[in-house]
Amino acid sequence: MKKFKEKLSGRIFLLLALSSISALVLITVFIFVQGLPIIAKVGFFKFISGMEWAPGEGEFGIFPMIAGTVSVTLGAALIGIPVGICCSIFMAELAPEKMRKIFRPAIQLLAGIPSVLYGFCGLIFVVPLIRDYLGGPGMSILAGSIILAIMILPTIISISEVSLIALPRHYKEGALALGMTHWQTILRVQLPAAKSGIVAAVILGIGRAIGETMAVIMVLGNSVAIPESILDSVRTLTTNIGLEMAYASDEHQQALFATGIVLFVIIMILNATAQYITRKKHSKTQNKRKSNETKNQTADR
Amino acid sequence: MPDSRKSKLTTKSINLYYGSVHALGDVTVEIPECSITAIIGPSGCGKSSFLRLFNRMNDLIPIARVEGEAFLDDSPIYGKDAEDVASLRKKIGMVFQKPNVFPASIYENIVIGPKSHGTENKAVLNEITERCLTKVALWSEVKDSLRKPAQELSSGQQQRLCIARALAVDPEVILMDESCSALDPESTAKIEELMLELAKQYTIIIVTHNMEQAARVSDMSAFMMIDEEKIGRLVEFSPTTEMFLNPKDKRTEDYIEGRFG
SS3 for A54? Predict the structure, then answer.
């Protein structure tokens, strides 16, 4: 009886674990099944490079949306990466313990704020500021970039901070013992040593920026056009789906799924790159070290 | 004989506290220039803490507090007249227990110190690299692979690279904190040989658990032990041959004999 119970509970847990993985599989299959036919019909290259998005007339080109996503993400990265990395250095190395205890949960809280609130704040504060002081409609790449930059900060800060804190203490000691200042130690030893973690943090942050929908719908203006300045309104891949899915049907709906495929692939590539970088770093030094040591030992004999 | 030399490092009744723990009590030594001084004693007697007083590595521990005086030549290491800690550490280099090369190339490991102290000239940096690696007998082994990651070297080579890295900033004193304890006998022999060579030009202080090593390389020996109140004390400081053949203190004798069986 006891054995049966053990077995049963094991099975139940396996089933639950499988359900989360099957969700991934189902979503992937569903998106591809729905989206691939239209890509096949229009042609992949024409689909991603087409300038015209007019679902009513059967024109499905998502290049303006790709340009929108790229420009907003680039803007968010330009603002968010330096701020995020500096903040992680501050938290890992410079902040006194007390301050760290306030900062860390505060930054985690930043990640927990619903994205619609980010969008709302952007619409109420950022958009009017841009409109009044810089001109244009206000709803713009700049507004989207600022909001997204804030939204990706928690990802960049927490992962970079962890990779800085996880550095062996003896790097820092070794650098200080050479008479390097604390600042030189951070710039010349600790940052390079934590490079792979920081790069992964940046990539995951960018992934988050690309995938964000709600907040950017509210501040981007969503016009389907190639932007000419950072004050222009754009539409991203995500907002394209979010805005039109409610009323789309047939080929139009398929085209939105196809947009989803493009998005999906981009995010997958980014995440895989981030994982590859962090993993490679560990295994590479360890393996090489090992193989070299065996080499030396054999040579000694 | 070593007494005739000028003293390089001096402490006067120095005390070290970690919070409420009194780690070192009233240690007074005069370490002669261009010699090797070995600090020996049982585990936990404050040898490493004492060594780290000289280059102020204890500063990294927030609860550490120092009382008393320490001098490099005639300039104070602690107090308001002390020079800035980075330039002190430039003069007093340190080699750690485990080789702690930076995750960068062999070349970068050597030049990072000089670069941080303002040497940017490529030719000068190359010269420093060759000179320092030659000094630690590593040049012939790595001269064709200077761009390779330092972490791919064997532990013994890494430790010699760490010594070369310390030499690259042109120190006057080198502190070695059990720098051979993680190495095989062959690498240890190489490093001991190196210490004897370096002592012609630098003042060296080593912490070691290895009595034979202290006897082989050092000119002066400092025996430390904790007293009844768990405070680390300097029991005896004398020329090594004298201490090993004719210890003045009963505790020193017990320790040395215990170790030799």
Answer: strand
Q: What is the pLDDT of residues A185-225, one digit of tens each?
A: 999 999 999 999 999 999 999 999 999 999 999 999 999 98
> pLDDT tens, B95-124?
999 999 999 999 999 999 999 999 899 999
Domain layout of chain A by residue ranges: 65-250
Interface test with B, best of A178, A187, A282, A291 (most B CBs within 10 A): A178
Predicted ipTM of the assembly: 0.90
Residue A220's closest CA among A138, A113, A132, A151?
A138
Residue A93: how many CA atoms within 13 Å on its side-chain side? 23
Give the nearest chain B residue to A284 (CA atoms): B152
Distance CA A231, CA A135 (A): 8
Which CATH number describes the domain made up of A65-250? 1.10.3720.10
Give B165's contacts in chain A (Cβ within 8 Å): 174, 178
A192 and chain B: CB distance < 8 Å anywhere? Answer: yes
| Residue labelled with tokens 């907040």 | A215
